[in-house]
Design the sequence.
């Protein structure tokens, strides 16, 4: 049995080990030369990111024969990761999601892993180092583990949705990679919704989604290490994940081989309503 408690716990233990032995020792203890930028002045990477990703990648490939790893930091140096995303088994790794928070001494950061089977997430983990808490999702539901306690079930076979007004929907949105015109369209729609919440970490956002503290997440660009874990959590809730093409006002199924904006709604019935507000402004 591949997706059993043993696999769940083994990956959880790896995340905990990476956190305790690599990530947390650098928290509030980084030297200037241990912080770099990648694609832009605001796209940070630290020694903690690189060392923890290396540790996790080497451990994960040993868990499933012939599996591959697509890690955020390694992929930033080689752009051919798309070629393996639809292989039989691929792990995605974001070692420190919320790196800017980590650098600033803000505890809102996490580590994320997803297991893809032919391009679709079938299991995912979000580990929050400062809380020693791990959230886990697969096709059967969502579970959470606090420190040394056992996993407990949050949802099994999806969340029972309730009728709600669009104006009550709470959300997280990142617009960084949109054009100025697209940003104006999206921002114009925000008034139709409820409270906007900003954490600086999509993994932390995913935990807010599964604890029903927010209703949807919008990101201006898709990446497998960021969004495969969130997609698994969202689908485990019974939600809908899809991408939005602002150039022809269309919606498409999630495909990591393109970098279109992505929308996660934990209520499948709300997805079209939210996307329509974005496109019609």
Sequence:
């Amino acid at each position: 049995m591949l997706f059993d408690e043993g696999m769940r716990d083994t990956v959880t233990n790896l995340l905990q080990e990476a956190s305790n032995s690599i990530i947390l020792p650098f928290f509030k203890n980084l030297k200037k030369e241990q912080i770099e930028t990648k694609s832009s002045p605001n796209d940070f990477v630290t020694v903690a990111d690189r060392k923890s990703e290396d540790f996790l990648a080497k451990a994960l490939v040993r868990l499933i024969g012939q599996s591959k790893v697509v890690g955020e930091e390694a992929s930033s140096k080689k752009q051919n990761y798309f070629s393996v995303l639809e292989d039989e088994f691929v792990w995605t790794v974001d070692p420190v999601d919320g790196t800017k928070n980590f650098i600033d001494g803000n505890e809102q950061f996490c580590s994320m892993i997803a297991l893809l089977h032919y391009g679709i997430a079938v299991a995912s983990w979000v580990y929050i180092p400062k809380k020693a808490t791990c959230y886990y999702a697969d096709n059967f539901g969502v579970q959470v583990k606090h420190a040394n306690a056992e996993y407990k079930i949050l949802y099994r076979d999806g969340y029972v949705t309730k009728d709600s007004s669009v104006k009550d929907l709470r959300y997280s949105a990142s617009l960084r990679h949109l054009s100025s015109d697209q940003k104006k369209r999206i921002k114009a729609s925000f008034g139709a919704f409820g409270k906007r919440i900003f954490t600086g970490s999509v993994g932390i956002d995913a935990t807010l989604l599964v604890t029903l503290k927010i209703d949807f997440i919008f990101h201006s660009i898709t990446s497998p290490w960021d969004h495969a874990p969130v997609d698994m959590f969202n689908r485990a809730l019974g939600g809908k994940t899809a991408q939005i093409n602002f150039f022809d006002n269309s919606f498409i199924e999630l495909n990591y081989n393109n970098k279109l904006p992505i929308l996660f709604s934990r209520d499948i019935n709300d997805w079209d309503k939210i996307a329509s507000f974005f496109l019609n402004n």
